[in-house]
Fold each of these.
Amino acid sequence: MLARPDVLLLDEATSHLDSDSEKALRDAITAIGTRCQVVTIAHRLSTTVDADRILLVEDGWLRASGTHAELMAADSTYRRLAGRQLAPLEATS
């Protein structure tokens, strides 16, 4: 972070964080994203819903890409994953 990279690669950066720490990291990434490209690899959709572009990979192949809203409208697998992962978070917020 101190070197101000052109591209920041985050691989499962939130996998061991609690919800509050995850949100703090997401906020920091949003701020950093104004200065460089951020590539996030994640299983938790909560870390990617605000991304400019999401790539959904299934069995090693690109299944779909788009924003969260576009994928919700167009892809049944993404909708199913979002329903499982995001609905409980939305119910508690």
Note: The mean pLDDT is 86.
Amino acid sequence: MHQRNWEIAVIFVLSVLVCLSTGCVLSGPKYNWSENIALSASSGRAGSESLDSPMHDDNINTYGETGPLLLDARDQASLEAADKFSQATLRWVKPQTIQRVVVKTDQYELEFFNIYYQDDEGNWELLKEVKNNISKAYSYVNPKPITTTHLQIRVPNRWDSRRVGGQKRRTVGEGGAPSLSYKKIREIEVYYALPMEAPVPTE
């Protein structure tokens, strides 16, 4: 019995290796994505005439920075969140359907961050918690589309960095009060899924 299980395991591993070497894709459903709707968003402070950030200008050579987390309320939880996070927020005049978010940064710039969206009642809802990211282009696809007018990248001021020059280092901002640390973001891209084209029947 153990011999049989071992043979099955070997066959499975070999099958995976063959699939990967020949370009097989072991992933979920395929999508036909829209154009980047972040280009039509505003990122200046709400209610002000401040300029939009270059973090959604379709130019990887420019970047913007996260800013202070502005309070929607004065309760204790909101005050604590404002001390712990910085943010970058995209706003649309009309509700947008969103299913894919891409965040492009310099490597190791955003190891930890959260993606939030604002619901119909104005509450911030967590879309994705990202940990130990070392990619220059992090892409998240939500299982189902959401509709919102606000999307926010929220970055903690402190985290335990495990990848800096191959060495583990102390917690960023460790010691005393949390340090105010703004992070560079080169691009935020946002997409929604388009209907897949039906296959053309063959005779």
Note: Residues 16-27, 164-179 have pLDDT under 50 and may be disordered.
Amino acid sequence: MKCPSCGSTRVIEDSIRGERICTSCGLVLMEHLFHQSLPYSEENPGFSELDEALHDLGLGTTFKVSRDLPPSERAKLRRMRFLHERSRAVRWHEKSLREALIQVEKICGDLSLPNEIRKEVSQLYRKCRKEGLTRGQKSCLILASLVFMVCRLRGLPRTEREIVRVLVEREKMEEEKARMALRRMTKTLGRKLGLKLPPSSPRLYLDRFASQLHLPAEVLRRAHELCGELGEMGGKPANLVAAALLYNAAREMGIGLTLKRVAEEVGVGVSSLCRFSQRISRKSPE
């Protein structure tokens, strides 16, 4: 693959982030990639590892119905498969675990997260169930909080607004209520599970936002330089800081980029973006 910005062929694929990145200029060529390869173990190359994302750890058997069979045989096998799937989760706790892990898959699919993140979220959810943290709580809210926490821990650029949007769509919650519930649940689970979330860095969002705005590599490089000169952010959200850095860098390079376009693409307020970009301009050396 060849980078359209600098022409280099030094492109790597990050399976954790699900991105293809040019190592010469740092441009994100592709994002939201899924890990397609099958699990492999060096000790047992013929067998896959246990999958925490499945309620039976992947130990159950599955089968597919071939289209080459006659219609009557296909219908019979479909009924057998339906009964087989029901028999894999007989008790109530097995059924609830399976439904929760299916929700994990859907949430990770909505956010285009790789399979490694889904497995880690499933592992943390099992731990929450074991310690009794899921009783009386909405499973979708717990899972969304765990997804948000794992993304923060692994340095994946997923904003709080993206997680809230998933809650609004799936639970039909109001946006403000979903945001406050997500923050409370994240704080509670982080304390109960002993997970200390690192502060989100604007550098994690620069590459992604620059790719969304179709900015050249020079603007991205200048935005990284401004980020190094910025220092303390004063508690501002990392996505807002990254958007302001890209806007200021584009203005310095003479590229016509409006505040409205950046705000709509990134998902921040125009007034907040305007104020913080002016603050960065005052801090940056002449």
Note: The beta strands are 11-14, 19-22, 28-30.
Amino acid sequence: MKGREVRVSGVLQPTGSQDDQLVFARLATAQSLLGKEGRISMAEGAALCKDCPIDDLVRQISEVLPGAKVMAIQQVVKGRMETLAQFRKISYGVSAVVVLVGSLVVLVTMMGSVRERTGEIGVFRALGFRKSHVIQIVFLEAGLVSGLAGIVGYFVGIGATKLALLFFAESRSISIPLDFGLAAGTFVLAVLVGLIASAYPALLAARLDPNEALGAL
């Protein structure tokens, strides 16, 4: 490490916290490796008590170390949790917009498909297909296309996230495993959105007059 030989005493089990990215060393060794002999950039203390007067502890430490920035971890954690809550609300809003836009896309696509296939629908009705059969055909097409789009979107999202981590993540050890439960949920949600959005086009297709539909051929 930086031209010096160091001995690894052990490797800790991962905990899922930021400590997994840390290297623990003797203070003198760390100061020497970093070129900061006699200096300390940060010190973390723990108070083993219940309902501790955190604010008083921060004030007392600040009085003892006037040149240091003293911060309570509890306040930092609270701030981070509030930030995460804001991001969660934003993500829910973005997800709602994406679902709405996807529904509109499916609606417009199926409306165009029904108009283009008016003659085919007329042939189906002339051959004895009932209105329910026509609705099932439209739903089947919409469900298949929506489900395929959901699966493709899931894998594209995973790939885009991994690519973004290469540029923005502080650690290269972060990985995003494939979650087949999430993939299944994405598939089901995509199919449901497709079926709901195609309900109106399916009704229009079922209500087409067979004679008028055959006239479109």
Note: The two ends are 78 Å apart (CA to CA).
